[in-house]
Amino acid sequence: MELYLDSADIKEIEEAFQLGFLTGLTTTPTFMHREGVKNVDEIILKLSKMVPILQVEALGDNADEIVKEAKRLVKLGLSKEKTVFKIPVSLEGVKACKKLTDEGYQVNIHLVYTLQQAYMAMAAGATYVCPLVGRLQDQGHDALALVQQCVDAVNYYGYRSKIMFSSVRNVEHVRNAINIGVHTITVPWKIMKQLTENHFTAIGTQQFEEHTKLMTKRVKDIIRQENPTVKLTETVLDAIVQMTESGFGAVSVIDSKKNLVGVFTDGDLRRKLKENGKDLLKKKMSEFEFKTPLTIESDALLNDAVQLIKQKNVDNLIVTEKGKLKGMLDVQDLIDIGLMG
Which Pfam family would be a valid example here (predicted)? Predict the structure, then answer.
């Protein structure tokens, strides 16, 4: 099934055709008017250079005028092989269609609302026959039944025409088109962008990414440059300043030789503040006893870090490199890359 973009928005056309597999572009005078186009010929030529196939309107009060307009656009610079001329269905429209297709032009008979109209377009040799599904449904008609009848007519009688499913309003319309077996569909960009979306796909992708990170990334890949430390000779106030400036909820406590002694956390701060009151701020780190801190080597996999944090129910791990203090891994660092909620 051919897939066309239905638009006149230059930015979204550029974005959409980066996909690399769209058949072409359908556009209308209404779309161009909405985009504030002032020079129709100029925009048509620009679009023709941006897409593989351009479907564009050829209008006139009678068949001769319609044919004349199509030929004028080709003389203007459109490629006969890469342009499909859209003609609203009417007696003059199908007459023009026959004249143009006999001369090798491609034609889309559109604004089709009945099987009879579609039949006349097929009989006239239209390259595309285009029922407007959304508009028909807005009026309370069974648009899907019409499209199915058009497809059946082409398949049964062997017409060369392709049935184009247009006036797409939602992703369900795309599913309908596939089930019916239309030959081509034209879709607005906002709908096309939704076609690969699915909640379960998103969850599965997230899990794959998370597990890949756990198995391939190492602690050193995500720890921040800041390494908040406080010496044994420094005070609780100094520790608070370090935590505030670094954004960590803990600081590493080191001795005069920069050896790791322990960790002072915001939890320790709250508990000791309750015990000592404001006097706590003047106390030195050397006045406290510290448990052996939880450490992890910088070359360890993130999976090991996550398991250790969960097992010990802590928010921080001290990161070492060959036994020497390297930095600190905060649970927020893991949250930021989607490994912990």
Answer: CBS
